[in-house]
Specification:
11 strands, single chain, alpha/beta, binds iron/sulfur cluster, 14 helices, TIM Barrel, globular, binds S-adenosylmethionine
Length: 342
């Protein structure tokens, strides 16, 4: 199989078989051609705008024990925090004043944030005329419906890996079927639904990554957020091999080729591995950045993996600095809500 012909086929038809994807993932010689094709498809379908989403990491309390994550309930070395709804609203207001049109509320699975606590907050944020993305894990259908009714527009829930055995190994006590149920509920409720995977989990194969990409296509995902798995010294996966950026970029570029018009963030986990890792991602298919506007100690304590807080510096001129960087690669900050352009 000629890999450059496969890349050409994907660029023109947005279709590949599982074997064809594996072939491209295996071949290192064609990486530059793959990234360039994804960049052209990004330009053709979603243009030069890079949409900014203000990320608020509002609780690091989590009932789950995902083996890869520093926020897992069993990790006693992390200082736990939970923002008040007033603190969250104040950050959303600040984001709105700074010109952000979307706020992303992300956190561990923290039972304190019931629908009674969250829905009034969502209504208040909505009154700021912002799109709201939630990323707070698995919930019953009724909760997702209540959040939607209160103004949430989008939801991010990574499937993490579509390899059921691997999923259940790394997410003890959680069920792959429930994860799928959540994603289908979110689609059914009309959320712009985002999912994604960790790339580089021990035991994950290229075939499994190929199946992940085809899953995104089958689901009809509106956004895909994926990134390298970065081992955290306070978790059971601390001795996993060092993370690499390129495999994650390749999965991302293939995702752009097969789902040409979706939103794809250049994720924070891409930054600690290579300087300007996120800029590289923006030139390999990504069209979204999620600047972290969480402040102070909370920002330090949302410690999923080492280097995270330092990777996205807390700067009062974040937007201007980003704007400058984006212009240097022929891109610009998006002006609208930046929803999925179908
Ligand atoms: N609790 C929610 C959930 O799991 O969907 C949202 C917050 S969770 C911290 C967000 C994402 O962080 C997860 O979907 C996972 O892919 C990612 N993550 C966790 N640990 C990581 C690590 N060590 N390296 C890279 N990403 C990680
Ligand atoms: Fe909790 Fe999400 Fe981390 Fe899993 S990945 S431990 S659900 S915060």
């Amino acid at each position: 199989m000629d890999v450059s012909l496969l890349i050409q086929k994907a660029e023109q038809t947005h279709r590949l078989t599982e074997n064809e994807i594996v072939h491209i993932l295996q071949d290192e010689a064609a990486d530059a051609a793959l990234f360039a094709a994804a960049d052209r498809v990004r330009k053709k379908y979603v243009g030069a705008e890079v949409h900014l989403r203000a990320l608020i990491e509002f609780t690091n309390i989590c009932r789950n024990g995902c083996l890869y994550c520093g926020l897992r309930a069993q990790n006693s070395r992390v200082m736990r925090y939970r923002m008040t709804p007033e603190q969250i609203l104040a950050l959303a207001e600040k984001a709105s004043r700074e010109g952000y049109k979307t706020v992303v509320l992300q956190g561990g699975e923290d039972a304190y944030f019931s629908t009674d606590v969250l829905t009034p907050l969502l209504r208040q944020i909505k009154s700021l005329d912002m799109a709201i993305t939630l990323s707070i894990g698995e919930r019953p259908y009724e909760d997702y419906a209540a959040f939607k009714e209160a103004g949430a527009d989008r939801y991010l829930l990574r499937i993490e890996t579509t390899d059921r055995a691997l999923y259940e190994k790394y997410n003890p006590g959680m069920s792959f079927d429930n994860r799928l149920r959540c994603l289908h509920d979110l689609k059914h409720l009309g959320y712009e639904t985002g999912t994604g995977v960790l790339v580089g989990l021990p035991g994950q194969t290229l075939r499994s990554l190929a199946k992940d990409i085809l899953f995104f296509q089958r689901l009809g995902a509106d956004m895909i957020g994926l990134g390298p798995f970065i081992p955290n010294p306070d978790t059971p996966l601390k001795n996993a091999p060092a993370p690499q950026l390129t495999p994650a970029l390749k999965v991302m570029a293939l995702t752009r080729l097969l789902l040409p018009d979706i939103n794809i963030p250049a994720t924070t986990a891409m930054e600690p591995l290579e300087p300007d890792g996120r800029l590289k991602a923006l030139q390999s298919g990504a069209n979204v950045i999620m600047p972290n506007i969480t402040e102070g100690e909370e920002r330090k304590n949302y410690a999923l993996y080492p280097g995270k807080a330092a990777a996205a510096p807390d700067s009062p001129n974040l937007r201007e600095e980003l704007d400058k960087k984006l212009r240097s690669i022929g891109r610009r900050i998006g002006t609208g809500y930046g929803g999925h352009k179908k």
